[in-house]
Amino acid sequence: MRVVVTAQQPRLDSLVDARFGRAACFVVVDTDTMEHRVVENNLIAPGGAGIGAGKTVIDTGAKVLLTGNCGPNAFRTLRAGGVEIYTGLTGTVRQAVEQYKVGRLTPAVDPSVQTHAGTGPQS
Amino acid sequence: MKELIVISGKGGTGKTSIVASFAALASHPVLADCDVDAADLHLVVAPRVRQESPFVGGVKARIVPDMCVDCGQCRDYCRFDAVIPPDGQNPSFRIDPSACEGCGVCERFCPTEAIVLEDAVNGRWFISDTRFGPMVHAELGIAEENSGKLVSLLRKQARDLAGQQGRSLLLVDGSPGIGCPVIASITGADLALLVTEPTLSGRHDLRRVVELTSHFHVPCAVCINKADINLEVAAQIAAEAAAGSVPVLAHIPYDNAVTQAQMVGRSLIEHSDGPASQAIRQLWDRTVAMLNSEKPQGDPYEDRHPAV
Amino acid sequence: MTIAVASGKGGTGKTTVATSLAAFLARRGRRAQYVDCDVEEPNGHIFLKPDITDSRPVTVPVPQVGTGKCDGCGRCGQFCRFNAIVAINRTVITFDQLCHSCGGCVRVCPHGAIRERPVEIGRIESGTADGLQFTQGRLNIGSVRTPSLIRTLRHGLDPALVAVLDAPPGTSCPVVACVRDVDYVLLVTEPTPFGLHDLKLAAAMVQQLRRPPAVIVNRSGLGDQRTHAWCREHSIEILAEIPDDRRIAEAYSRDRILIDAVPEYEALFARIAERLSV
C-alpha cells in the first residue's frame, strides 16, 4: 500500500519534516516494495498551506500520512479525503515507514497543533 | 537554538531600538526584521546585502486594452472596487493593482478573455551581514497585502542560517498589531517580549497582544518603556501583568540618548551608558534567564543549548 | 470632505493629531466626524471619550454549499485561489477564515449549489463626543479581514460631515483601504531617521494612490532637519510642526486630547484647518 511521509529532503533517508502544511516535500512510499517517489509541496497560495498540502497528499492516492504535526485545517482536509493521519513521527522517512508497517502507531483523532505552527522554528 | 521575538501592540513603543541593543549585547545572534511593512532595524544595524530575491505573494489581474470591448462586466463582478472605468486620461478600463486581491473572478468571466492574471512581485527580501551577525530582512511593496507569507519565509531563512552557522539565538523584530503578519512571526517562538508604554492606549494594546500570544501558546513577558512619563499607569500595567502571570522584566526610563543613538545610527548600548542603557542591560539579562529556563515549544526532541 | 491622518510608522502622533483636529472642527461649529480606522488597535476613544449609542456587527459573506444540489464536480475548489473552498472526493469543505469573499465560487458552480452566508469579522461602534460624531471599527481577535472592516467603515460615512479618518500605521493594504479616494492625506512624522525612512514609504504610497500629501512634523526639535530638507526637495508641504513638548506626552499618557491639555496648541490646528480650507 501507499503511504506519504513529510520529508526535509527528497530521499528515503531524509529526516521526517515535523511540519505538514509547510513541509519541504512529500515522499510517497510503497510499503511492500519500498519503492518511492517525491512530490513537491507547492506553496503558491498566500494562506491555507495545510489545505494545499492536504490536497497534494490526497491526489497521490495514498490513504496514510506520516508526519510530525498536523494543524486543524490540514486535519479537516485530509480526513475529508479519507486519509489516516499519524503524528509525532521522527527519525528518517524509512524509519517512519518501518514503524508504521510494524503496527506500533495509533492514528490521530485531533490536530496536534494550532494553526500556523509550522511557520515558526522547527527542531 | 532559541528564538526571541520582540513585539508591541502599537508602533512607536521602542521595539526596534530594544532589538538593536539586544543585537549588540548578544553573542553571535542571527537577526530577522519581520516588521516588513515599516522595516527600520536596518537603519541602525547597517546591513550589507549579500543576496536579494523577489517575493511573489499572489497574483494581480491586468486588462489587455486591445482585447477589451468596454462592456464593463468586470466592474460589476469585482467586489474590491479594483476596476477603474475609462476617464479623460485613460481610454480603457484598468485594474487598480493596489485594490486587486487576485481572486480571479474578472479573468474568469470576461467575455472576450481580455484579462490576465500575473504573478505579483510584492516585495524583495535580503540576506545581509551586519556588525552583530547575519540578518534576514525584506521590503514589502507599497500598498501590498501583508499576508504573513513573507514573514514566514523570512523566519525560515533565518532559521536555516542559524543552523548553518551554528548560532544559538534568533532575534526577531516583530510586526505591530494583531493580524496575520504578527501571527506568522510569533508562532513557535520560545519567548515573545512585549514592549509597551505607560499610557492607556499602551495598556489596551498590551491586552490584545497578550491574548494573541496566549491563543498561540507562546510564552510572553513585558517591558514598560518610557516608564517615567506616567508612573501611575506604569504601575497599573505591571499589576495587570502580574495578575495575569506575565512577568514584567523591566521599566525603562525615558532618555534622550535613545534618539541621539538613532541619529548617529548606533544602538543605545553602543552609544550610551545612561539610565535607559543600563535598564536595557538588566532587561537583557532577565530575558536571557527566562529564555534559558523556558521549556522548548512543542517538540520534545529539540536540543537545549543556552541562548547567548 | 475627507481628511486621512496617516503615517508610515506607528507611534508618530496620528491619533494625537486626528483627535485634536476633529475635536477642534466640531468646537468651531463645523459638522464633523472622527473615524478610527485603526481597527486592530483602536485608540481614539481613549481620548475623545465618546458616548457610544450604537454598536453593530460587521459581516462578510462566505460560501455555504447546499449538499442537495452539489454533485461534487469540484469546480469551486479549482477556482478558489485562497484554499477557502476545497472539493475532496466529491464533498466540499470550506475554510471561512481564508475566504476573501470574492463570490467566485458561487458564480462558477454549475448547479447553483453555493450560497453565501455572513460571518462576523468585527464591530462598528458610534456615538458622539461633545458635538463630534464618533465612529470606530474593532476587528475580532484572530480575524484577518482588516481591509474589509475598514472598507465598511468608509462606506458608512455621513457625506454631510467633514470626516477625519485616523488611519492604521504602515503602508500596506489596511492603510490603502483607509486612504483611497480621500480629499487630503496628512502624514504625521517625527524628525528622526526612523521617522524619515517611514515617511518616504508613506509618501510613495500616497503618491501611488494619487492623493496630495502634506506633512505634519511631530516632536519637532527632537532630531534634526533632514526631514525638512527632504520635504523641500520633494515639494511636499509641511502644514504644521508640533514641538517636542513633554506636556504633550503627559497629556497623551493621561488620556487627554492635546488641545484640552495644552490649549495654546489650538492655534496650530486652526492653521491646519485653514490650509485645508475646512
Can you describe what's shown?
- With 123 residues, chain A is of the alpha/beta class.
- Chain A has one domain (2-113): Dinitrogenase iron-molybdenum cofactor biosynthesis domain (Nucleotidyltransferase, domain 5, 2-Layer Sandwich), CATH 3.30.420.
- Chain A contains 3 helices and 5 strands.
- Chain A is globular.
- In chain A, 52% of the residues are buried.
- With 308 residues, chain B is an alpha/beta fold.
- Chain B folds into 2 domains: 2-47 and 130-293, Rossmann fold (3-Layer(aba) Sandwich), CATH 3.40.50.300; 57-121, Alpha-Beta Plaits, CATH 3.30.70.20.
- Chain B has helices spanning 15-25, 42-45, 73-77, 105-109, 149-164, 180-186, 200-215, 231-243, 257-263, 268-271, 275-293; strands at residues 2-7, 30-33, 48-63, 83-84, 94-95, 115-129, 134-140, 169-173, 191-196, 220-224, 248-251.
- A 9-stranded mixed beta sheet of chain B has the order 3-6-7-2-8-1-9-10-11, sandwiched between helices. In chain B, strands 4-5 form a two-stranded antiparallel ribbon.
- In chain B, a hairpin with a 4-residue loop joins strand 6 (115-129) and strand 7.
- Helix content of chain C is 33%, strand content 30%.
- Chain C is built from 11 helices and 11 strands.
- In chain C, the strands form 2 sheets. Chain C has a 9-stranded mixed beta sheet, sandwiched between helices. Chain C has a two-stranded antiparallel sheet with strand order 4-5.
- Chain C is elongated.
- The mean pLDDT of chain C is 92.
- The interface between A and B is medium-sized, with 18 and 31 residues.
